[in-house]
Description:
This protein is mainly alpha-helical. 76% of the residues lie in helices and 0% in strands. It has helices at residues 15-36, 40-43, 49-79, 86-110, 113-139, 146-170, 181-213, 220-243, 248-271, 280-300, 307-343, 358-377, 384-414. Helix 3 packs parallel to helix 5 (113-139), helix 5 (113-139) runs antiparallel to helix 6 (146-170) and helix 8 (220-243) runs antiparallel to helix 9 (248-271). The longest helix is centred in the C-terminal third of the chain and has 37 residues, at 307-343.
Amino acid sequence: MELNGLSIDQAPPISAPVRFYLTAPLFAILAGFFMFFSDASTLSSRYSLDTIVITHTLTIGFLSFIMLGSLTQMLPVLAGVVIPKVDKVSKIAHILLVAGLISMIYGLHSQNTDANTLAMLLLGVGFSMIISVIVMAVIRVKNFNATVKAMSVSLFFAIFTILMGIFLLYTYIDDDIAQYRYIISNIHSVWGIFGFAGILIIGVTFQVLPMFYVAPKFKQFCKKKVVWLISFGLFLWLFTTIFYEPLSIVAKGWVSLFFWAFATTVWIKLTRRKRPISDVTVWYWRSASVLLTIGSFVWIFDEYFSHEYVVMVSVMFGGFILSIMTGMLYKIVPFLVWFHLNAMGYMTIPTMNEMIDKRLSKIQFFLFMISLVGFVLAFYIPISLQVASLSFIISMMILQYNVIAPMLIYIKIKKTKPDFDMSAFATT
């Protein structure tokens, strides 16, 4: 594992990112139950309430939680800056976001305007708190490397994605502005997937692949240009979508081209890594590369086909992002446990590979892949939806256990006496 260039002394308390990591699989499990009790014909429309509830249970509860946890952990370590009151802010924001998402789920399902109003307030304040302190830290960054630049750009898209999301939630409260729902929803989803999640994943990958997999470093063109080229494509898509929609396919092709190039690069880097030992996280990265490639090119032409293709694009991109996030959890959580225990003077610590049951993680991977295939087939074989949902639920339950296991090791070891007294090195 390569740790050069990291400001490990600036790392936040382990509780700051881990509270997000521990909660994320719970919302994925909840989304699985929603899918089980839905039907394929309803989910074939991206604008149905069932689809919206399931999508946001995953995007806010699973994806955003993991991304926010990673931002609070990685930004100080990579850029050497302290996020102001990160533990306290992350705790309050986490509570607000959990409560807000639950209110949103209930409000949309029951069409309860009071619950939707409460959700709009809680989610707005929760996201504003955590994003604001991260932006404050970014402003003070001096070591503006490629990963930090990508994080900064992704935060820009995150802010507008959140603002659009709050507006969309308001359309379910005030019917007078519901006429703008579809165009804003389209921008919200594309900027959320490609701008926030996609660019953040690219930036984190610049650091994670060489660090955890001892893979070759990315070339300077990739580090310096790709994020800006994708951003240009997203603004071009926005302009053409609003003013001349027939040309939006050009912008789609532009964005998809660079995501496909990124997916291909990731595959090549993993093939050329110095220690080519395969594990389930490598499987997730390779699967994500394939899913991103398929999803990118299907997305270009999805408007020319039936609604099933729109849903398949969502599954492909959801599979790409979910795969990356799951693979990262398997690396980051054990690393955090090892790192923080080591910093406190504990030397007799299980290795990162020993903290998670390899057999269970492989089962979890295969169940997850089966669920993705089942979701695609569900629009041709309806019973596949229930089978896929069950597979997804069990997969996420195993993931939840695998995320909790390293934290139980952390708690158990912390109750014992450290091998070395590190108090002399503590900063005041």
